[in-house]
């Protein structure tokens, strides 16, 4: 796994429209900005248990080099957690965070919320939130979470109309962005604590129990290679996707190997 070293560029102070306003909640130190390029890049400089939230991002980052639409009204949040340089943790941390956020969404009354491996929170076929985990230092990991709340991502990118949803369309009265920040930071902390206390296996078991519907999926691995097709049959104890091929053979795919997963049914 690569340690990202593009901080000086992203941190051009001219790109930040407001100095971070500080607040504290449940052991988290939260920095709030009006507008930043990416909260993940900013958080990369901070110690563990600090978090950055911005009202908008001008260069929001998604998984596999994609951009992330981050207009006003959404929750754009990055949390720094302690994490030793261990490839194994790297593979399953996004799933553990997804498990924590999924439980929060269900508690909030979001019906039909599910995790799409490895990092998408979905409701039906539409994406509500995404998780991007990045490492900037050997001792910490930045957990970036983007949740569509009151914003319409399709106002910026029309192609997202069919594929994205927002909290305001799923529950009657979403909490404020400040309340959601606290709720999701609590979820990230408990996923981290659970992982360090009991390992990933119990979380993998719980996630596997949520995937009751067998989905046919297509995986893109290398840029010019043909998609790999099969049935998604859950994850293993390392967080790798288990794909059942038409031959009946089950193959494991680490998230680092897969640039795109498409559900076919
Ligand atoms: C994905 O689904 O591809 C992951 C999207 C992650 C977006 C969040 S928004 C807060 C944080 N800052 C970023 O630049 N990206 C993450």
Describe the overall structure:
- With 265 residues, this protein is α+β, with helices and mostly antiparallel strands.
- The chain is built from five helices and 13 strands.
- The strands form two sheets. Strands 1-2-3-4-8-7-6-5 form an eight-stranded mixed β-sheet. It has a five-stranded antiparallel β-sheet with strand order 12-11-10-9-13.
- Helix 3 crosses helix 4.
- The longest helix has 22 residues, at 177-198.
- The two termini are 32 Å apart.
- The protein binds biotin.
- Biotin binds next to helix 2, strand 4, strand 7 and strand 8.
Heteromolecules bound: biotin
User: On the 0-100 scale, what is the average pLDDT?
Assistant: 91
Number of helices: 5
Structural class: alpha+beta
Percent of residues in helical segments? Answer: 10-25%
- Major beta sheet summary: 8 strands, mixed
Number of strands: 13
Uncertain residue segments: 1-11
Order of the strands making up the biggest sheet: 1-2-3-4-8-7-6-5
Q: What layout of secondary structure does this protein have?
A:
Elements: H1 7-10, E1 21-25, E2 28-36, H2 39-43, E3 50-57, E4 75-82, H3 87-107, E5 113-116, E6 120-123, E7 126-134, E8 140-147, H4 177-198, H5 201-210, E9 215-220, E10 228-235, E11 241-244, E12 250-253, E13 260-263
Parallel strand pairs: 2-3
Antiparallel strand pairs: 1-2, 3-4, 4-8, 5-6, 6-7, 7-8, 9-10, 9-13, 10-11, 11-12
This protein binds biotin.
Biotin is lined by residues 38-40, 57, 60-63, 66, 68, 70, 76-78, 119-120, 130-132, 144-146.
